[in-house]
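Our consortium's second objective concerns turning raw sequence data into structural hypotheses that experimental partners can test. To show how far this objective has progressed, the report includes one record in full. It was chosen at random from the queue rather than selected for favorable results. The single chain below, 141 residues long, was entered without modification.
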Amino acid sequence: MSVDKLSLLDTNVIIYLLDGSNSKKSRRAEKLVQSGLRERSCCISQQVIQETLNVATQKLNFAPEDAERLLDKTLLPLLRIVPAARLYERGLRIQSRYLYSFYDSLIISAALEAGCKNLYSEDLQDGQRIEQLTIVNPFRG
């Protein structure tokens, strides 16, 4: 998969995959994650792993072995962005300029650092462009 087709998945996409309470969003998340794994067209950051495992174990009551299976089979294969000084510096600049929370700014920074074209997120401004990145709400419509 060429970098110009790479997309970053925000934590909420992974959570919808795990939490079947909204079947439409769960199916859409499953398609994104499965195609991302198969085609290597999607990635996540270390922050997404941390947030996902926290929600899975604390709110969705995953057993430790289920959380570990999620980590090994889904999250680690998608991981492409790990923290570095420039990730945080860019995150602070994004926070200042676009007025997102610090953690949302880090997600945007991670997508930019990976060279992503799209950032799939329900929580950010759908259609907004930040540098070469477009924020896309995969659950709209």
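The partners drew two points from this record. Helices lie at 11-18, 23-39, 46-58, 64-78, 85-98, 102-113. The mean pLDDT is 95. Both points have been shared with the crystallography group to help prioritize constructs.
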